[in-house]
Protein backbone atom coordinates (compact mmCIF):
# COMPACT_ATOMS: atom_id res chain seq x y z
CA UNK A 1 0.00 0.00 0.00
CA UNK A 2 2.79 2.43 0.89
CA UNK A 3 4.59 1.71 -2.40
CA UNK A 4 1.42 2.50 -4.31
CA UNK A 5 0.91 5.70 -2.33
CA UNK A 6 4.52 6.79 -2.97
CA UNK A 7 4.09 6.04 -6.66
CA UNK A 8 0.89 8.12 -6.83
CA UNK A 9 2.58 10.98 -4.98
CA UNK A 10 5.52 10.82 -7.42
CA UNK A 11 3.14 10.96 -10.38
CA UNK A 12 1.28 13.94 -8.91
CA UNK A 13 4.53 15.81 -8.22
CA UNK A 14 5.81 15.02 -11.74
CA UNK A 15 2.55 16.32 -13.19
CA UNK A 16 2.76 19.52 -11.18
CA UNK A 17 6.37 20.10 -12.22
CA UNK A 18 5.54 19.45 -15.88
CA UNK A 19 2.60 21.85 -15.63
CA UNK A 20 4.77 24.51 -14.03
CA UNK A 21 7.41 24.09 -16.75
CA UNK A 22 4.75 24.35 -19.49
CA UNK A 23 3.24 27.44 -17.84
CA UNK A 24 6.71 29.01 -17.62
CA UNK A 25 7.34 28.31 -21.30
CA UNK A 26 3.98 29.82 -22.24
CA UNK A 27 4.71 32.92 -20.13
CA UNK A 28 8.08 33.32 -21.90
CA UNK A 29 6.39 33.11 -25.31
CA UNK A 30 3.82 35.71 -24.30
CA UNK A 31 6.45 38.25 -23.28
CA UNK A 32 7.01 41.09 -25.68
CA UNK A 33 10.54 40.98 -27.05
CA UNK A 34 12.58 44.18 -26.83
CA UNK A 35 15.45 45.25 -29.05
CA UNK A 36 17.73 48.19 -28.47
CA UNK A 37 20.51 49.69 -30.52
CA UNK A 38 22.00 53.13 -29.97
CA UNK A 39 19.21 55.72 -29.88
CA UNK A 40 16.40 53.27 -30.71
CA UNK A 41 14.44 50.93 -28.44
CA UNK A 42 11.59 48.83 -29.81
CA UNK A 43 9.05 46.70 -28.00
CA UNK A 44 7.59 44.06 -30.30
CA UNK A 45 4.12 43.59 -28.87
CA UNK A 46 2.54 40.12 -29.33
CA UNK A 47 4.53 39.07 -32.43
CA UNK A 48 2.54 35.83 -32.64
CA UNK A 49 -0.43 37.93 -33.78
CA UNK A 50 1.43 39.86 -36.50
CA UNK A 51 -0.08 39.64 -39.97
CA UNK A 52 3.07 38.17 -41.61
CA UNK A 53 6.45 37.64 -40.07
CA UNK A 54 6.66 34.03 -41.19
CA UNK A 55 10.03 32.38 -41.64
CA UNK A 56 10.51 30.60 -44.94
CA UNK A 57 13.19 28.39 -43.43
CA UNK A 58 14.75 27.76 -40.05
CA UNK A 59 13.30 28.26 -36.62
CA UNK A 60 10.52 30.86 -36.36
CA UNK A 61 11.77 32.41 -33.08
CA UNK A 62 15.28 32.91 -34.46
CA UNK A 63 13.91 34.44 -37.65
CA UNK A 64 11.75 36.87 -35.68
CA UNK A 65 14.73 37.88 -33.54
CA UNK A 66 16.84 38.51 -36.67
CA UNK A 67 14.05 40.62 -38.18
CA UNK A 68 13.65 42.63 -34.96
CA UNK A 69 17.38 43.22 -34.58
CA UNK A 70 17.89 44.13 -38.24
CA UNK A 71 15.07 46.68 -38.22
CA UNK A 72 16.22 48.18 -34.91
CA UNK A 73 19.82 48.60 -36.12
CA UNK A 74 18.64 50.08 -39.40
CA UNK A 75 16.36 52.59 -37.64
CA UNK A 76 19.23 53.59 -35.36
CA UNK A 77 21.59 54.06 -38.29
CA UNK A 78 19.14 56.41 -40.02
CA UNK A 79 17.95 58.20 -36.86
CA UNK A 80 21.55 58.82 -35.77
CA UNK A 81 22.00 61.03 -38.83
CA UNK A 82 19.70 63.73 -37.43
CA UNK A 83 18.92 62.93 -33.78
CA UNK A 84 21.20 64.11 -31.00
CA UNK A 85 22.87 61.82 -28.46
CA UNK A 86 20.56 62.88 -25.62
CA UNK A 87 17.48 62.00 -27.69
CA UNK A 88 15.93 58.53 -27.82
CA UNK A 89 13.36 56.98 -30.12
CA UNK A 90 10.97 54.45 -28.57
CA UNK A 91 8.57 52.34 -30.63
CA UNK A 92 5.89 49.85 -29.64
CA UNK A 93 5.18 47.74 -32.72
CA UNK A 94 1.72 46.14 -32.79
CA UNK A 95 1.70 44.66 -36.31
CA UNK A 96 4.16 43.69 -39.02
CA UNK A 97 3.44 42.45 -42.52
CA UNK A 98 6.66 41.76 -44.38
CA UNK A 99 6.84 42.36 -48.12
CA UNK A 100 5.85 39.28 -50.05
CA UNK A 101 4.08 36.12 -49.02
CA UNK A 102 5.52 32.78 -47.91
CA UNK A 103 4.53 29.90 -50.16
CA UNK A 104 5.15 26.19 -49.65
CA UNK A 105 7.41 24.40 -52.11
CA UNK A 106 5.50 21.10 -51.79
CA UNK A 107 8.53 18.92 -51.21
CA UNK A 108 10.82 20.43 -53.84
CA UNK A 109 13.01 21.64 -50.96
CA UNK A 110 12.78 21.60 -47.19
CA UNK A 111 12.29 25.37 -47.20
CA UNK A 112 9.33 27.45 -48.28
CA UNK A 113 9.91 30.57 -50.38
CA UNK A 114 8.86 34.19 -49.97
CA UNK A 115 7.28 35.47 -53.17
CA UNK A 116 7.57 39.24 -53.52
CA UNK A 117 4.96 40.91 -55.76
CA UNK A 118 3.24 44.29 -55.86
CA UNK A 119 0.16 42.85 -54.19
CA UNK A 120 2.10 42.01 -50.99
CA UNK A 121 3.47 45.38 -49.76
CA UNK A 122 5.32 45.81 -46.47
CA UNK A 123 3.20 47.20 -43.62
CA UNK A 124 3.84 48.14 -40.02
CA UNK A 125 1.72 49.59 -37.23
CA UNK A 126 3.32 51.21 -34.17
CA UNK A 127 3.24 54.01 -31.66
CA UNK A 128 6.35 56.08 -31.01
CA UNK A 129 7.91 58.66 -28.74
CA UNK A 130 10.97 60.83 -29.12
CA UNK A 131 12.42 61.60 -25.70
CA UNK A 132 14.84 64.48 -25.20
CA UNK A 133 16.55 64.56 -21.79
CA UNK A 134 13.77 62.40 -20.26
CA UNK A 135 10.99 64.59 -21.67
CA UNK A 136 8.65 63.39 -24.43
CA UNK A 137 8.93 65.92 -27.26
CA UNK A 138 7.11 64.03 -30.01
CA UNK A 139 4.63 61.17 -29.82
CA UNK A 140 2.25 59.56 -32.25
CA UNK A 141 0.84 56.49 -33.93
CA UNK A 142 1.71 55.25 -37.39
CA UNK A 143 0.24 52.77 -39.82
CA UNK A 144 2.83 52.53 -42.57
CA UNK A 145 2.48 50.84 -45.94
CA UNK A 146 4.63 51.17 -49.05
CA UNK A 147 2.46 50.32 -52.06
CA UNK A 148 5.19 51.32 -54.53
CA UNK A 149 7.88 49.24 -52.87
CA UNK A 150 8.83 47.23 -55.99
CA UNK A 151 9.63 50.36 -57.98
CA UNK A 152 12.44 51.21 -55.56
CA UNK A 153 16.08 51.25 -56.56
CA UNK A 154 17.69 47.87 -57.05
CA UNK A 155 21.02 48.92 -55.48
CA UNK A 156 20.36 47.06 -52.19
CA UNK A 157 18.92 44.01 -53.90
CA UNK A 158 20.61 41.46 -51.62
CA UNK A 159 19.93 43.30 -48.37
CA UNK A 160 17.50 41.42 -46.12
CA UNK A 161 14.33 43.37 -45.27
CA UNK A 162 15.25 46.10 -47.77
CA UNK A 163 11.60 47.02 -48.41
CA UNK A 164 10.78 47.34 -44.72
CA UNK A 165 13.99 49.30 -44.06
CA UNK A 166 13.22 51.71 -46.92
CA UNK A 167 9.66 52.19 -45.63
CA UNK A 168 10.89 52.99 -42.10
CA UNK A 169 13.70 55.25 -43.35
CA UNK A 170 11.21 57.17 -45.51
CA UNK A 171 8.96 57.63 -42.45
CA UNK A 172 11.89 58.86 -40.35
CA UNK A 173 13.03 61.36 -42.95
CA UNK A 174 9.62 62.63 -44.05
CA UNK A 175 7.76 62.65 -40.73
CA UNK A 176 10.12 62.66 -37.78
CA UNK A 177 13.14 64.58 -39.05
CA UNK A 178 11.20 67.80 -39.90
CA UNK A 179 9.68 67.86 -36.38
CA UNK A 180 13.11 67.73 -34.75
From TrEMBL:
Annotated InterPro entries: DUF3016
Q: What start and end residues bound the annotated signal peptide?
A: 1-23
Keywords from the UniProt entry: Signal
The domain of life is: Bacteria
Q: Which Pfam families match?
A: DUF3016
Give the protein's recorded name: DUF3016 domain-containing protein
Which taxonomic lineage does the organism of this UniProt entry have?
Bacteria, Pseudomonadati, Pseudomonadota, Gammaproteobacteria, Alteromonadales
